[in-house]
Amino acid sequence: MTTPRKPYVRRQYWNEPTMGWWENFYLFEVARGLAITGGVFLRNMGKWMTGRKGALTSYYPEETRADYAAGNRGKHILTQRPDGRPQCVACNMCATVCPAQVIEIDAAFDPDDPAHPKYPSRFEIDYSRCVFCGFCVEACPEDAIRMVKETPDLPGFDRDRMWLGKEELLNWQPHADVAKPYPVRPAAEPGRSPDA
Amino acid sequence: MNAPDLAISLVYIAYALAVLLTFGAILTWVERKQAAIMSDRIGANRAYVRIPFTQVKLIWLGLFHGMADGLKLLLKENFKPLAYDKLAYALGPWLAIVPVLLVFAVVPFGGQLDPGRLFPGLAGWFGGRTYPMQIAPIDAGILIVFAFSGISIIGAMLAGWSSANKFSLLGALRAGSQLISYELVMGLTVLGLVLIFGTVNLASIVERQSGTVLGFLPAWGIVYQPFAAILFLIAGIAENKRTPFDLPEAESELISGYFTEYSAMKQGIFMLSEFIEIAIIGALFVTLFFGGYNLPWMNDTGFVFPGGHAVPLSHGWVVLLQLLTFLGKIFLLCSFQILVRWTLPRFRWDQLLRFAWKFLLPLAIANLVVTAVALWAQQA
Lengths: 196, 380
Prior knowledge:
The complex is a heterodimer.
Chain A: H1 21-24, H2 27-49, E1 76-78, H3 93-97, E2 103-109, E3 118-126, H4 135-139, E4 145-147, E5 163-164, H5 166-171
Antiparallel strand pairs in A: 1-4, 2-3, 3-5
Chain B: H1 3-38, E1 49-50, E2 57-58, H2 65-75, H3 86-103, E3 112-113, H4 115-118, H5 123-126, E4 131-132, H6 141-162, H7 166-197, H8 202-208, E5 212-213, E6 217-218, H9 221-224, H10 226-239, H11 251-254, H12 264-289, E7 298-299, E8 302-304, E9 310-312, H13 315-341, H14 349-379
Antiparallel strand pairs in B: 1-2, 3-4, 5-6, 7-8, 8-9
Helix pairs in contact in B: 1-12, 1-13, 2-12, 3-6, 3-12, 6-7, 7-10, 7-14, 10-12, 10-14, 12-13
């Protein structure tokens, strides 16, 4: 014979809503709700009528919010060396780590700069597929790619126009790497080969 | 019917159709914008009309979104469900919109029109006759209103039943029981007003509201019957099947209720009839409780303010003021209905019926009894 199981009683951890006759009558509370929403309507309408903005949202592509957080992962930029060339050494780490595989880099040889002979001749990001995870920034050993808080001007009618090239990455908001001060490049002396 | 009468009738019908369809089109925009402003948003503002051969884009606060919607509905696929009753399916939208339009026939949208005084050149043709600004000046006004709103129930029921879709059928059943319940409340609330004014002719009801009570209050129905006004507005919103009474088409439960299987312009007709019905409910409320086309202290010859100060107006100005007053009052009522729609959450089904039968109906009957007793005491 099995012992009778104790019936499961669910523990009540919430408060029962208590409504007095005032709330139960419903019409008064409806009137209060209408007063609240109507008040918001009148307030916002008054703002629009007097030439101010009566909304919390923004006209997105025309108007971007000024209050992005400092750490917001927005548009990518490439940092510059003092002479204006990209700090990127075309190591392809960002392109490798990128989960959306949107970074395309073509490396090239720069005989003028013996310390950094490899540089990107092409650096492009496909913003139609970028997921803004920030892994490229994490992976970069040279602090060459960063994300600023401003958002990219994304909306468009054509995917092919959503590629960001090296020129824009470098020059849209030029940043220099202050943590890594480069000595000013000496002017090339005549009769001295660059790799001596 | 002679030629001048016919001409006047045609002008009235054209005016009524223009007003109703314009209200139907404008209210889609008003609803979007008002909802947006109420909830701190901006609202639809992208559709534009580009002036040909220029780059000038007219946006006009998104006024063209309604136009874009209509165009989209016209161009969409005219889908038909596989198994349906062809006749009933085709009749559904028309039975929904035609009665709504017909109700406006008995609503007076202005006072007496004397075309001979407006156009002195035609005075001989009209022969000094005056016309009430009402398409069908018949004595059975309120009865006609209820008869036609009864027909629109059939439209919803037919549409839901003939679609051969369980969601549609559920929506149709809900629509039927809801509309019948709330029509009862609506009728009982109006009865108190009928007792006071002693007539069901809408034109005479409005004329009775043109004076003043206690010397300064406009003698509007809402002054005599404030409770009936509130109950009538509630029942009217329920008749219109809009939130918080939108159980027949509850999107989150029934896709879109009794017109789930309708597509393209057939669905557009249901939407249009819903928006026109907002204006119709507003027009009825204005006619019964807000003095119709009357401005406070205004009569057929001008204003007479409580202090005794009089401002005479010519016949043309009086007619124009009456038309504009009526439209303005309807617009305010429409705006209020949209406010209600974007404020209150939807009822549960049992709450909806309980609200009608156990709350509104007893209140309406009590209102009627009190009115009758008060009138009896006054006469005795």
